[in-house]
Amino acid sequence: MTTVWLPWALVALMYVLSAWGWAMTPSGVRLPMQWNIRGEVNWRAPRAVALLFSPSLAVLTVGLTAWLATSEPGQMAWLSGAIATVFLLTHGVYLYFAIQDVKRNRA
C-alpha cells in the first residue's frame, strides 16, 4: 500500500523542478517546446505553459492510471510508478536543455 503515494510524490517533484526552472529563467522569456534533428528550436511557449505542461500531463496520466487500477491495485501500482518516473526524468532533461537555450540566447 505504501507504493500508492510514490507516483504522486514524483509528480510533486516535477512541480518543484518547474518552480526551480521558473526561478532560473527571466520574466517574459519564451521557452523552447520542441527541437528538430539539428538541435534548432522549432517553436516556443510562454514560460508558465512550458514549465507546467509536463507536470500537468503527468497528473492526468498518473490519475488515469490510478483510476484504471482501482480493480487491481496491486498489479497496476508499479505501472503508475514507472510512468511517473519516466515523466520526472524527461521533465528534468527538458529543463536542462530549455535553461541552456535561455542562457545561450541571453549571452
What's the helix and strand layout?
Blueprint: H1 6-24, E1 30-35, E2 41-46, H2 47-68, H3 73-106
Antiparallel strand pairs: 1-2
Descriptive report:
It is a single chain. The protein has 107 residues and is mainly α. It has one domain. A two-stranded antiparallel sheet has the order 1-2. A hairpin with a 5-residue loop joins strand 1 and strand 2. The chain is elongated. The model has no long low-confidence stretch (mean pLDDT 89).
Q: What is the rounded distance between the termini?
A: 49 Å
Number of domains: 1
Mean pLDDT: 89
- Looking at how many chains there are and whether they match, the oligomeric state comes to single chain
Give the neighbour order of strands across the main sheet: 1-2
Describe this structure in a few short sentences.
70% of the residues lie in helices and 11% in strands. It has helices at residues 6-24, 47-68, 73-106, and strands spanning 30-35, 41-46. The protein is elongated.
